[in-house]
Amino acid sequence: MSDVTDNTRSLVSLIGELQEVPDPQAVSMWPQTQGWIFVGLAGMALVLWGVRKLVLHRRANAYRHAALRSLAQVGDDPAAVSQILKQTALVAFPRHKVASLTGMQWLAFLDASSTVRGFVDGPGQGMATAAYAARPVTNTKGLNDLACNWVRSHKSERVQ
Questions:
Q1: Which pLDDT score, from 0 to 100, does residue 6 have?
Q2: Distance from C-alpha of 106 to C-alpha of 1, rounded to nearest angstrom
Q3: Within a 10 A sphere around the Cβ of 157, how many other Cβ atoms?
Q4: Other C-beta atoms within 10 Å of 109: how many?
Q5: Global confidence as pTM
């Protein structure tokens, strides 16, 4: 029986002699292999390329945003809408294709340069003579929506 007590005592005394385990060394956040450095650099280059593309895209379409803001202020006034669309078209297309267009040729150009139709046959008809009419052109309901859709959907011929 004394053997058991000696073993118990020795276990208790051993527990008292235990030392605290030291904390492990901090793990370095620096990549351990060169491959991860290249992956990180490639990722940063990809992000920078994407930001550059986004900035260039926004700059290239700034004229569209300006035209939409102007259209929001003029309502369905055919003369004002025509003027805004002409300014927008002069930015998006070569000057020699747009500057001299008037009347039905202007409306046909608008219909042809976008997926939007309605300038020759719809509410856009009033734009052909609105600048020269003695009386205000009527029946232009929906002209502003048509013009906004043209601004959003026309295919620019500018070199970017």
A1: 56
A2: 115
A3: 11
A4: 18
A5: 0.69
pLDDT for 77-112, tens place per residue?
A: 888 888 999 999 999 999 999 989 888 999 999 999
> 34-59, pLDDT tens digit by residue?
888 899 999 999 999 999 999 999 99
Token pair, residue 62, equals 């700034």
3-state secondary structure labels for all residues of 61-88: CHHHHHHHHHHHHHCCCHHHHHHHHHHH
User: Alpha-carbon distance 2 to 4, whole Å?
Assistant: 5
Q: With beta carbons less than 8 A apart as the criterion, state whether 122 and 93 touch.
A: no
Q: Where are the domains of the chain?
A: 63-153
According to DSSP, residue 28 is labeled P
